[in-house]
Write a structure and sequence with these properties.
With 224 residues, this protein is α/β, with parallel strands linked by helices. The chain is 37% helix and 17% strand. The chain folds into two domains: 1-34, no CATH class; 35-221, Rossmann fold. It has helices at residues 2-8, 29-34, 64-75, 79-96, 113-119, 123-135, 158-165, 193-204; strands spanning 55-61, 105-108, 138-139, 144-146, 169-171, 181-189, 209-217. It is globular and about 55 Å long.
């Protein structure tokens, strides 16, 4: 069936549209080589007073080809791209960010129910599910609820982003996180406001260590 499927729907590079050999690929070698690796620790914006997580890492910079991939994955539900990005994460985390594997639970950033209804696809939790499966770590995003539907962040400044996120999450069973190490997963790290707010709630629930991992991050919040 693979051969026939390939004939009808030949796999193509999501960036340059070049035809690819394998169905599971989504970038050609030339485009793949242009992805800019990040893999250094991420920081919050200097205006933030409290940081509630221990460390944050991303695989790539959020630019150029990576922007296109994430957009296709998130808004056009190209799960093949999510699988491809998670595969890279599963290969690189043990070498580059081994501390992330010390955790007991993995959670993906939840979407608000009204947003989920209009979109149907929770991209961050798709990523957290795949990564948790790859490392055989428990995934429990269902324990976290987004209780406020935050206005679209692209339109607001950094200070507003942090204000916006306040009280946006609720932990359904806080005991599940008590004395646990938790890894939060999202697609893109921009200001760090969203993950910091969830970290605050997890810390209140008794989490002992909180890490953050995203596929990509904007360059301005990387140290060094
Ligand atoms: Zn290409």
């Amino acid at each position: 069936m693979g051969a026939l499927w390939n004939l009808i729907y030949p796999p193509i590079c999501y960036f340059c549209y070049m035809r690819l050999k394998h169905q599971k690929e989504c970038l050609c070698a030339a485009c793949f080589s242009q992805l800019k690796k990040n893999e250094r620790e991420l920081f919050l914006s200097p205006q933030t007073v409290f940081k509630y997580f221990h460390q944050a890492f991303a695989l790539f910079y959020y630019e150029h080809i990576m922007r296109v991939l994430i957009h296709e994955f998130k808004y056009n539900e190209k799960k093949i791209i999510g699988d491809f990005l998670c595969q890279i994460a599963i290969e690189r985390i043990p070498q580059k960010m081994p501390e992330l594997l010390e955790v007991d639970i993995i959670v993906g950033i939840p979407m608000h129910s009204t947003r989920l209804r209009s979109r149907f696809f929770n991209h961050a939790q798709y990523l957290s599910g795949k990564i948790a499966e790859g490392f055989q770590i428990k995934e429990n995003s269902k324990l976290i609820q987004r209780v406020r539907n935050v206005q679209k962040q692209a339109l607001t400044g950094i200070n507003q982003r942090f204000e916006n996120q306040k009280n946006s999450f609720r932990i359904r069973v806080p005991e599940e996180f008590s004395q646990r190490k938790v890894l939060i997963i999202d697609d893109v790290y921009t200001s760090g406001a969203t993950v910091n707010e969830l970290s605050y709630e997890l810390k209140k629930a008794g989490a002992t260590r909180i890490y953050v991992f995203t596929i990509a991050s904007s360059q301005s919040f990387v140290a060094g």
